Amino acid sequence: MEAPICIRPATLADAGIIERSIRIGCALDHRNDPRRVSEWISRQSAEDISAWFANPQLYLNIALLDDKPVGVGMATANGDITFCYVQPECFRRGAGRALMADLEGWLRIRGAIHFQLNSTRTGEPFYHHLGYRESAPALNDKGLQTQPMSKPLADSS
């Protein structure tokens, strides 16, 4: 039997998992276009990540499997789930579900009445499985298609 997924608050030392998850796990979305990958990763620079940790309105978590980081997520206190990235070799092993449950729990405590996110094409089936539904037409940001999705608190579990 596989070890359980453990979730803990992320630290600055965990930042590398974000870049790897984008490069490898989101290849369907950026199609390995170096310009798109660079633009996407540039939005997650060390300075950005440091600022995230200093902001009490943001929460970053990390999923561990056998004490190895396998996923990372972030939410804002207003109900936005900013990202949920899982290492491709850990897809369908419970890390994404555990990250999302922890993020949603953090948001519930802060009084969120619904959760919203912008999903990549890669993530849409996963978010649908968790009860998220399209909430607006798809967006295109520098060649990256995202789908706004939301989930009312009553549907969260």
From TrEMBL:
<keyword id="KW-0808">Transferase</keyword>
<feature type="domain" description="N-acetyltransferase">
    <location>
        <begin position="17"/>
        <end position="154"/>
    </location>
</feature>
<dbReference type="InterPro" id="IPR000182">
    <property type="entry name" value="GNAT_dom"/>
</dbReference>
<dbReference type="Pfam" id="PF13673">
    <property type="entry name" value="Acetyltransf_10"/>
</dbReference>
<protein>
    <submittedName>
        <fullName>GNAT family N-acetyltransferase</fullName>
    </submittedName>
</protein>
<dbReference type="InterPro" id="IPR016181">
    <property type="entry name" value="Acyl_CoA_acyltransferase"/>
</dbReference>
<dbReference type="InterPro" id="IPR050832">
    <property type="entry name" value="Bact_Acetyltransf"/>
</dbReference>
<keyword id="KW-0012">Acyltransferase</keyword>
